[in-house]
From TrEMBL:
The keyword Nuclease does not apply. This is KinB signaling pathway activation protein. Keywords: Membrane, Transmembrane, Transmembrane helix. It comes from Paenibacillus montanisoli. Pfam families: KbaA. The lineage of its organism: Bacteria, Bacillati, Bacillota, Bacilli, Bacillales. SMART domains: KbaA. The chain crosses the membrane at residues 34-58, 70-90, 102-119, 131-150, 156-178.
Amino acid sequence: MAVGGVVTTIVGSVMQWTDASFGFMGFEAAGFNALMMALVGLLFGAFSQMGFFAYLTLNYIALGVIRKNYLWNALQAYTTLFMLGMIGYLLYLDRVKLENNLIYWVLPLGLLFASWAVASYKAKLTNKNAFVPTLFLMIVVTLLESWQTIRGEESNVTAIIFMIIPMFACNAYQILLLHRLVRKEQTTDSASNAKPAV
């Protein structure tokens, strides 16, 4: 949640500096706007946590049902590509309403490259099997979490950027931290189950 608050405040402040009309009460109330953005960022962080835990639950159930890790990875890879294509197509249809002729290919490609970098780093930290699940989380889950701004009645490019960057940052933070928490938990369990020396 702290990551969401900080990133949202930074993104919102940059957007306000580049566009004086962005903000709750105009550029004059920059301090108030920063506070409101931080509070919104905390909500983004909480929402990101819910999406992350939902994905972990889905992953656990899917591996129990499919039982073949490579099949589940293939399904995630297909879903990721489908989602990227679909979001590009939907933004292309809305390009007039969004008043932007570039967003329909800039957003999917930007999200793909950023997600690829996070997934590559995650695979380097753990193992190559983590690449596809991380890519799925960073693309599919991030887009689903940001769906309201992408397809909402009042959606616009500013709203999409304002929500999708903090969601991406929160998801990246969680997935890159996960293996450390799991390793720490396993170490703690091993220590508590160890028999005392006689």
